[in-house]
Design goal:
The protein is built from 2 helices and no strands. It is an all-alpha fold.
């Protein structure tokens, strides 16, 4: 007897909840990386994880810089 699996497509996922969890994980990785030697294997692994999180966020949102800080300030004047 086989158990049936219900598979959910990417569209069914709660994107905001998923992006929130990814953002929290990314912040933790960035924070942990500060204490690592810059060129160590562990540091490179953290960089790879951060890159994968950014790529997954791109797939979910279409924004390449979803988790990056956005510049703020006064918009340029129109001539």
């Amino acid at each position: 007897m086989t158990a049936s699996r219900s598979s959910r497509s990417l569209n069914d996922l709660d994107r905001e909840e998923l992006l929130g969890a990814l953002g929290g994980a990314r912040l933790s990785l960035v924070s942990a990386k500060r204490a690592m030697r810059p060129k160590s294997g562990l540091s490179r692994s953290v960089d790879a994880l951060i890159s994968e999180i950014d790529e997954f966020a791109l797939l979910l949102t279409g924004a390449e810089d979803y988790f990056h800080l956005k510049a703020h300030g006064t918009p340029a004047r129109k001539s």
